[in-house]
Model the fold of this input.
Amino acid sequence: MSKFFINRPIVAIVIAIVTVIVGAITVAVLPVSQFPSIAPPEVQVQTTYVGADAQTVEQSVATPIEQQMSGVDNMNYMYSVNSSTGEARLIVDYDVATDPNTDLILTQLRETQAASQLPAEVNAFGVTVQKTLTAPLMLISLYSPNSTYDAKFLANYAYINLNDQLTRVPGVGLPSVSARTSVSGCSTQMPDDSVWPYTCLRLSPRARKNRKISGPSGAPPV
Done:
C-alpha cells in the first residue's frame, strides 16, 4: 500500500486535500452539545458580616452554612474563604453530569435552612447564591493613561458601567470586580449637629431605624 502512494504522489495529495476539506466542513456543522462537559458546575454562596473579623465570620456564618450544605445531592466537595473585611464565600462543587440549574436550586434550599442560624446583620445584608466557575473566562483591565483617576474610581466605574452589561452576555456566569467596588460609610448625627463616624455593626436599633441614605447630587434622602 505504501508503494502505491509513493509511485503515485498526485493521488496521495488529492486524498489529503479531500480529507482536510471534509474535516473542516464537519467541524463547522458539528453541534456544540456533542462536546462533553469537562468543567464541573459550581455554586457560590456569598455574604458579608459587617464589622466582623475572619474568625468570627468562620464561626458565625461559614460553619452553619457548611453544616446544612453537607450531604447535598451530587456534591463533590465544598470549601469556604473568609476575609478580615467580613466577607464570606462558600464554593460548592457538583458532579460534572448534573444540571447547573438543579444544583443552584439545591444549594439555595440548603442555604435557606441555615438562615435561622445566621446573625441578624448577615440576614439583613442578604445572602447571594449564584452559579460560578473558579477559572475565569476573561480578564479585563481598566487603567487611566495620565493617572487622572485612581483604582477606587476605576473599580466603581467598572461596577456601574460594565458589570451589568457583562452579566447579560450569553455564557457569562458571574462578573467580578477585583478591586473595591463601592464607597460607603456610616455616621451618627449628634445633638450638636456634628457627625461622629461609627461602626455600622455597633449602631443601636434606634439609630438603625432612624438612619437615612442620602441621594446622589443633592437629591432628597431615600
Remarks:
- The CA atoms of residues 40 and 96 lie 4 Å apart.
- Helices lie at 2-7, 9-29, 54-69, 100-114, 120-125, 151-161, 163-167, 205-210.
- The beta strands are 42-48, 75-82, 87-94, 128-132, 187-189, 195-197.
- Residues 2-34 form one domain.
